[in-house]
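Practice set, problem 2.
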Amino acid sequence: MLIDTHLHLIDRSKLTYPWLSGVPALDRDFLYNTYASEARRCGIDAALHMEVDVDAGEMQRETDVVKELSDTSGQLIRGAIAACRPEDEGFAGYLERQMADPFVKGFRRVLHVVPDELSEGAVFREHIRRMSGSRLTFDICALPHQMSRVLALIDLAPEVQFVLDHCGVPAISSGALDVWKDGIREVAKRPNVVCKVSGVAAYADAETWDVETLRPYIEQVTANFGWDRLVWGSDWPVCTLGGGLSTWVATTHALFAGSSEAERTKVFSANAKRLWNL
């Protein structure tokens, strides 16, 4: 069983995605039925939808659209990691509304698409602290050179459960390991962080990567975070840039083939069930 903790859906008839024009390979619809057909064949039994950086005025609409999809019998979607803007004064009210909806499991604000100073602002930090003790997680998507800022944010709110997306976004194609490794070691020292095994194929050379290309990165996060603090995600449709969903699932099984059944179960489903009460 696999629980996909990082599914993106793109439906341009319902939502606006300002960033898509800059990524031609993804500038089209990626709808639920297309995903679900392949996901079921790959052994994916449940999924969490991850926000797709829609227009800021459509954040609630995105959650509503995904929730409506999930209400249909037999759907894979079990919840949403919603978009948020902690830098806005209105975040407190937004947090209260999302807390009242059990479908919302957490928040994400991608940090590498905004100025570094954003996460250092007083309002942003106050609002992250406001999440302390809540059931909502906060996904962090940042580049290796931003890890000092990430660490400051994590240390600011030790009672917030953070999730480090895409193994910390290693620059696999360039082979620049040292800065990434140092960041992973430091982040993993914080007990309130879980690492998401997702997205890494998109950071490798699309034409030449194979299982062994990715293995050092997966082994590094496993060694640092341990089996109880890893979750799995597809990053569909971004994973289509590195081979596609079926390729990533097959690669996942190959990467973890040497681990025990109990260890694989934790990464593939059990940790996600516990973390998001699925």
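Problem 2, part (b): a different protein.
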Amino acid sequence: MSGARGKRRFLLALCALGTLLFGALGVWQVERLAWKLDLIERVDARVQAPAAPIPSRSAWPEITAQSEEYRHVAVRGTFLHDRETLVDALTERGAGYWVMTPLRTAQGTILINRGFVPRDRAKPSSRAAGQVAGEVAITGLLRMTEPGGRFLRPNDPANNRWYSRDVAAIARARGVSGAAPFFIDADATPNPGGLPVGGLTVVHFRNAHLVYALTWFGLAVLCLVGLALVLRSREERG
């Protein structure tokens, strides 16, 4: 008898704990959903806004993803084509490279992701028309640096193999001092000769928080039902 009572107590405790735990996880996912919807709204507003000047150099140390990423910006300067870096890319156009080129501006040097080139056009000589000289105007989206590589594949500066757009590492490797801590994804304005192809930034945020919230709340309800059944069984047994 005491063994059955102990078992019921254990089940009661387990069901009560499950109800509280899963309920708390559901509430957390609802909060995450509100945060994600706010993020999507803010980013969409930045992307759709008219291009504005880049933040002043004095503000660069304070720039964060939350405050500035995906902001539509404009800048003028001169490309340093001899210091471009090719970063592995997989896009709607297939596999190839992002062409990351330093742009010397009045405020300092900023890395520009000029866009995509296929692997067979990696050499600058194969797209010479796109190596524009003189002052240029660039509009695009401000992006934050991508340190540490991606997909667990680290950059290999010594062998000039790049898998993420790590601004600081690329600047060091190319001898660029005082580079901005962000880069700019150039828009779809065509380059002479057609390459690189800009405007391929994917602005998408996965949002499955509602599904997660419903799952956790569903499990909480199941635990609550189990709790009620255990209590009812105890009452029937006296």
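Answer key, part (b): The chain is about 35% helix and 25% strand. Residues 203 and 221 are 36 Å apart (CA to CA).
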